[in-house]
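As a next step, we paired sequence with structure tokens, yielding the entry below.
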Amino acid sequence: MEEERIQRDMDERLERAQVEIRARLEKVELRWQEDEQARRREWEALEGRYMTAQEEHRHFNDGILRKMTVMTDEYIQIMREGAAALQREIAEQRAQIRANTEAVLKVLDRLPPQAG
């Protein structure tokens, strides 16, 4: 029963983490799209004309590179936060195991000697 509860808790935490990660990545992508539209409007305002096909293609490629950079940065941040959370959880579990071991050893020291 305890193992099932632990597995259920872990599954729920993973599900919440996946939802949070998806939401963060969607926000980053939305910000990127807004930035790209702003860049395009700014370029057209400076040039005073619409982009040619070649300029549009170059702008598109540049936008893809920017998107890859932004998304990679966010992925790295997510991984770092996940690693830090995992390290905290491992430290807490080790502390709990240490406390449980000490408690068991104290109980064993209090047992009367076995008749032999």
User: Anything to note?
Assistant: The two ends are 37 Å apart (CA to CA). Residues 53-110 form the longest helix (58 residues).
